[in-house]
Design a protein that fits this description.
The protein is α/β, with parallel strands linked by helices. The protein is built from eleven helices and nine strands. The strands form two sheets. Strands 1-2-3-4-6-9 form a six-stranded mixed beta sheet, sandwiched between helices. Strands 5-7-8 form a three-stranded mixed beta sheet. Helix 4 runs parallel beside helix 5. It starts with a strand and ends in an 8-residue tail after the last helix.
């Protein structure tokens, strides 16, 4: 059984974490499988959108605590292993944002600790209404410092800090209100809603979406003037494309664009 399943449908790549008996943890094997797919997708121009989901009862319960405890058996009490683990995890999280394709998390059950980080690292997220989210490592004496990076870039500081220091869980409707996810929907509508969003994005000019995704993340840390100067250059390049010219002509002529 593959730890990470993939199937492609009309430009939409479906990736499913597939270790349901262990609640789909971000184990060494799972991180390696995710990294391999990220590297493959970087140059896959047939892929327009990625949907990331979890098999079984939950989306992802975070790091594999049993593997982490086993790492303590090393002579350095696990220092080198832990440093490598969090480096590899950060590479996966940042890699999702560096993909040319938008990534949508399809979330159910729970998304906790690094699993919540995974949701926050995706470009968009749809969750079942009864899904619980938490950065709850503090409950076992491990502050979710790396999940904090993604979480604090999705929601307001004070609410993020409260979740990190209390270990409290929130349900999908509150996660939507805070901006961690795009929408919460009934469980029976989760897959269809996620696929509909993916199909809508996939119907756009893929190159424009890709250049836009890159620009979206690049401009965020810039000052206002820097951001406008940078994005202005991006739009100039975009305007010079043949397919953009065709898209504008088609709009003005009230017809569908003939994109190459």
């Amino acid at each position: 059984m593959e730890m990470l399943e993939r199937h492609d449908t009309n430009g939409i790549v479906h990736l499913r974490l597939n270790a349901p008996e262990r609640l789909n943890p971000l184990s060494d094997g799972m991180l390696a499988a995710l990294q391999a797919q990220i590297e493959q997708l970087q140059n896959d121009r047939s892929a327009r959108v990625v949907i990331l989901s979890g098999a079984g009862k939950v989306f992802c319960a975070g790091h594999d605590l049993k593997e982490m405890q086993a790492g303590r058996q090393a002579e350095d009490q696990g220092r080198a292993y832990f440093q490598d683990l969090f480096t590899r995890c950060a590479r996966v999280m940042s890699g999702l944002q560096r993909l040319p394709q938008p990534v949508i998390a399809q979330v159910h059950g729970i998304a906790t600790a690094a699993g919540c980080q995974l949701v926050a690292s995706c470009d968009m997220a749809i969750a079942a209404e009864n899904t619980r989210f938490g950065v709850n490592g503090v409950n076992i004496g491990l502050f979710c410092s790396t999940p904090m990076v993604a979480l604090s870039r999705n929601i307001g500081r004070k609410r993020a800090f409260e979740l990190l220091t209390t270990g409290d869980f929130i349900h999908a409707p509150e996660a939507e209100r805070l901006g961690l996810i795009n929408r919460s929907v009934p469980m029976e509508d989760l897959e269809s809603t996620t696929v509909a969003l993916a199909q809508k994005v996939a119907s756009k000019l893929g190159a424009a979406v890709s250049i836009g995704k890159e620009a979206f993340y690049e401009q965020l840390p810039m000052s206002l003037d820097e951001a406008y100067a940078y994005t202005g250059k991006v739009m100039v390049e975009n305007m010079l494309w043949r397919d953009t010219d065709e898209g504008i002509k088609a709009f003005l002529e009230k017809r569908a664009p003939d994109w190459a």
